[in-house]
Amino acid sequence: MRRRRATAGADETERERDEAKSASSGGSPPYSALSLVLIVVVFAVIGRLGRDAVGSLVAWGNLGRSISPFSSSPSGVTRLVTDEELSRHDGVQDPTLWLAILGEVFDVTKGERHYGAEGGYKGFVGKDGTRAFHTGHFNTPEGLTPDMSGLPDAAHLAIREWADFYGRDYAYVGKLAPGFYYDERGKGTEGKRNFDAAVERARVAKANAVARDAAFPACRARWSQAHGGEVWCDANKGYPRKDVSHVNGKPRVRCACFPDPGFSDQRQLYPGCPNDARRCAT
Q: What does CATH list as the number for 80-202?
């Protein structure tokens, strides 16, 4: 009996020792449910912001460097090319063929048939001859200049589209700097800002013309040697007028159908045609 009591006392003492250990460690497992939830939330937030954070670090690291829409570099950092370097890539001093348009340099070696020694566009190689893309004067030093001053806004837009073509079809090299369009750091010059403003004006004018054409559709027309010309609007489609407008500073005249018989300096009557007629001789 005494032995059973002693054994029971020993077991009681062992349980008390275990409870004391548990109490000293906080009475809970190493990670509570709340801790696990917090850990999951933290990792979720880090995962969500991670890419943005990395992108921000890359952008911060690129501060002060030149960025170009044509750049194929993953970081977007653009190489700066000097006039001297560009001139060497003429197929003679260097076997590759480079040209510049709007201060953007492209490798056109794959188009050697056009830009090589026997090509019709060899004059463009080794220089920025932006203006000649509009004027066609690509065989004279005076024509092969980057300056577009004095040309209409529509010409600026056409050159912008030429540059976009090179960006799609040829390997981009970098920016011609310092030059007419970019300074020694690859930042846009006043010449570039003026060019971009002209392009924007041309785009607005083009959009307005498209909208006007949609609002006042073109007349039907025909001409014969026996009867001359005639314009007309289909039934319920309006009255034919000379629609006079200006696009990029130049007058634009077309026959358009207007919904009412009114007329003005911009909606001119055809000579000898009544204002309510739907057909007019021209």
A: 3.10.120.10
